[in-house]
Amino acid sequence: MPKATYFRLPAEKRHRLMDAAVQEFTRAPFAKASVSNIIQTAGIPRGSFYQYFEDKQDIFFFMLQDLGKDLGKGLLEHLETAHGDLIAGLRDFMDDLLDQVVTGTHADLFRNVFVYMDYHSAARTMYGDAKPDHHDKKKLAMSKLLPLIDHDKITIDNDHDIIMLIRVAFTWFMQVLAGYYSAKNTDHEVPIDDVKTSVATVLDWLEHGVAK
Predict the structure, then answer these.
(1) Which residues are within 8 A (CB) of 129 and not within 5 positions of it... i.e. 6 or more apart?
(2) What pLDDT is recorded for position 121?
(3) Phi-psi category of residue 84: left, alpha or beta, with phi > 0 → left and psi -120 to 50 → alpha
(4) What is the Rg, in whole angstroms, of the alpha carbon atoms belonging to the chain?
(5) Per-residue pLDDT tens over the stretch 17-46
(6) H helices present in the chain, as ranges
(7) Domain 4-208 bears CATH identifier 1.10.357.10
(8) How many angstroms from the chain centroid is the CA of residue 208?
(9) 44 neighbors 58 (Cβ within 8 angstroms)
(10) Would the pLDDT of 184 be above 50?
C-alpha cells in the first residue's frame, strides 16, 4: 500500500502517478518495467517516488487494486440485475469482465499481468495481502455484496461459505484467463468464446453439481 504521504498529494498528482504506472506496466511486464520510466512520465523526482511507495511492486499492486475498483462494481450491478441470484450474477459479470479484460481499454496491461504474474501474485491481487488495510477493504467489498444475495436460491446458509464459493469461482476464472494469455503468447490463440464456455461450464458445475 502507498505511504500516507501519497494520499496527502493533490488529486491531480495522484492521478498523474497512477497514469504513469499504467502506461509503464502496459509497455512492459513487471520484471522489465522501470521505476525510472514511471517517475519520468509522471514528472516527479526519484526521491519523491520512494516517499509515496516502497518499491515497484508496491505501486504495481496498488495500481491493480485501483483499476479493480471499477471492475468490481460490475459484480454488484449484475447481482442486482439478477435479483440476487448469485450464480446468474457471476455468470453475467464474468462474461462481461472477459470482454473488458481481453478487448477493453487496458487489454495490453492485463495481458502483461496474467502472462507474467505467478499464481500467488494473482491471488494477492484478487484477495488482498495480509496487511490490515487490504483486509479491511476486502471486508468492506463483501459487506456490500452479501446483502444482495438471495439465500433462497442457494443451499449455502452462511456468509463464510458464500465467500468461499465466490473465491472458488474467481480462482477458476483467473486460471482460465491465464491459460488464454499463455496460449496467445505462444501463437496458439484460443477463441474468446471458448474461454467464456469454459468459465460458464464451471459455473454450471457449481450451480447443479456433477454427481449423478
Answers:
(1) 61
(2) 52
(3) left
(4) 19
(5) 999 999 999 999 888 999 999 999 999 999
(6) 4-7, 11-27, 35-42, 46-52, 56-81, 86-103, 107-116, 119-127, 132-145, 159-185, 192-208
(7) yes
(8) 27
(9) no
(10) yes
